[in-house]
Amino acid sequence: MNKSVLMVGSGAYLPEKILTNDDLATFVDTDDGWIKQRTGIAQRHIVADGELTSDLAYNAAINALENANMTADDIDVIVLATTTPDDTFPATAAQVQNRLGAYNAFAFDVQAVCAGFVYALTVAESLLLANKGRRALVIGAESFSKLLDWEDRTTCVLFGDGAGAVILEASDDAQNYGILSSALYTDGRHRDILYVDGGPSKTGSVGHVRMKGQDVFRHAVEKLASSMYAVIEQAGVSETEIDWLIPHQANLRIIDGMQKKLGLPADRVVRTVSEHANTSAASIPLALNQAVSDGRVKSGHLLAFEAIGGGLSWGAALVRYGRP
Ligand code: ACO
User: What is the Cα–Cα distance from 212 to 154, expressed in whole angstroms?
Assistant: First the structure.
């Protein structure tokens, strides 16, 4: 019998502090109208002084464990997707493991920027399919505000902080549930359209996000669509069977472009970009948890995830949520 990897719970955490577009306009040359019209973003959450990525990740993990009726002891693997680790090393996942007391689990970080959650999901699935554990905690957590140049209006208005988490469980008896397909891609030739101008081996500093927005936009819809078609074909389903498209939340225009390309009704897309902005690796699990919490996503629903970010790295996954 084939093993499946189920997605059996989700959780999320957002820092308390909210920065609206009007707040931003008090110190950058921008305005609410421009930001909303070009991106759909109205506000973003920002970490407090001293609040770390591991704090966000820990809170999202606790929430996911509670929602799945599990304890930290139940977890065998922790994979944390982040571009904004607490420290250069050790992995932020190791800090989260310690705070959770999840000492049965091995833990490590994955770095694929905005595509991080789809990467972490696929890595965790592969580990469970290879019998390296039965349950995995997959977290996307970012303090992306720490990478922003607050004088660069072309980037600082786009991002926010937060964390989301899911719990995966291997099962021998759940055909057609769980992760049905996934696909990952990278093209390092496009490094210069989205990067951070710092790093341990290059400058010894953290650096700031630099982006050619229109070039990123051009790649986004085309690459997201082709990765989505790949996972649809792999899973042997049709796009009309997708109950919820839960995309990376970078820009409403990219999200709506994908919805139209896939021919999905507008009300089958989960959109959180207005409240959260782009939280990089955290955006998909944050959006998922919102839709699970408000009752839109139910057990048995077919979910489509897709994301693209720096690298360029991108990917997609199809998941039938919950347990049979
Ligand atoms: N407020 C006001 N004006 C602004 C701002 C701002 N925050 N930012 C730029 N402008 C100005 C520009 O200076 C320019 O002025 P000019 O015409 O006088 O030179 C004008 O607005 C138009 O700028 P463009 O860059 O052409 O605006 P565009 O319509 O391309 O929108 C945006 C920019 C929103 C960044 C868009 O290109 C985009 O969404 N790209 C995708 C990038 C993205 O989502 N990156 C996130 C990381 S990757 C990912 O997660 C997918």
Answer: 9
